[in-house]
Amino acid sequence: MPPPRCWRPCAATCPARRSTPRPPARTPPTAPAAGRRASRSRSSTPHTPSTSRQPCGTPTTCGYRSYRAGREPGCPEGRARARGSVVLDLSRMNRVLELSPEEQIAVVEPGVITAELDRTAGEFGLRYAPDPASAAISTIGGNIATNAGGLRCAKYGVTRDALLGLDAVLADGTLVRTGRRTVKGVTGYDLTGLLTGSEGTLGVITSATLRLRPVPEETVTVAAYFTTFAEGAEAVSALTAARVEPAMAELLDGPVLGAVDDAQGTALRSRGGALLLLQCDGRGAAAEADAAVRCLRGHATSVEVTGDPAEADRLLAARRLALPSLERLGRVLIEDIAVPRSRLAAAVRE
């Protein structure tokens, strides 16, 4: 059966073998997920362009429901795949187009895996600061589509803060370029920020200009266990009051620790009802970590400190494996809330 009329413009730019109906791919069961599972349809038509011009012919004006901006688990790769919808799979667009150590920027296609960009930048003593827990499988396009946060957002911000410019295809097929290649940019509307977090509703992102940062000279990781989650939240408030500003601060409660134990064979839950993970980086990392430990001593049952990268990865594994471990127990629904830092402990108690 020939494709519906509104699909035909894609034929000139998308090879037929890349636009044949097939069931949508399932997310690997071990992949972290943001918790909001998209409904999946038995019938959808995926398109897998490999260049920035191929999405131009995709029928974005005829009511398609979603596109796969890349992979940021839980949202953009399968959002509302209704019957007869059109899905763009941009995983073939996975090249680092430019990496400039002098300007500390990278220009990448949306299918580039986050961790692979970080490794590539690391060869030049740089890194991509946002560090989503799903960095090993998430893509830059998925991160941009959801404005993903990440473990280091306490110091470096979220995806939008590392994004300088975008190339995108609008609903009528128009190619647009937004933003800049410089650190400072104060002219005109912030269209880059508008597209970031729009989950494909405003356009298809085909490339992104990203800000890179130097790899810190020193990184110190702190892990503190608490009897209860409320005590852990109170410790976080104490850190804020002491003006300690770590690059990363992640607090996991007892049920999450138990889920990780069941999935990974660890014994985190036996050490407490909550785990706080901190990471301080830069030339003053050791001094800042010492200040954090002094604040935590009055709240935590035990505190570990390490400057060894391998040991730090072991400690951070509990956070990176949290969501896939929870998924083994059944359907996961997670919603973000935001409260003033001074009210964090009170919010937990409520």
Automatic annotation (TrEMBL):
Pfam families, sorted: FAD-oxidase_C (PF02913), FAD_binding_4 (PF01565)
Bias type Low complexity, positions: 32-53
Keyword terms: FAD, Flavoprotein
Entry-linked SUPFAM superfamilies: FAD-binding/transporter-associated domain-like, FAD-linked oxidases, C-terminal domain
Pro residues bias: start-end ranges: 21-31
Domain FAD-binding PCMH-type: 36-215
GO molecular function: catalytic activity; FAD binding
Keyword set includes Zinc: no
Region span, Disordered: 12-62
Name listed for the protein in its UniProt record: Glycolate oxidase, subunit GlcD
Species: Streptomyces himastatinicus ATCC 53653
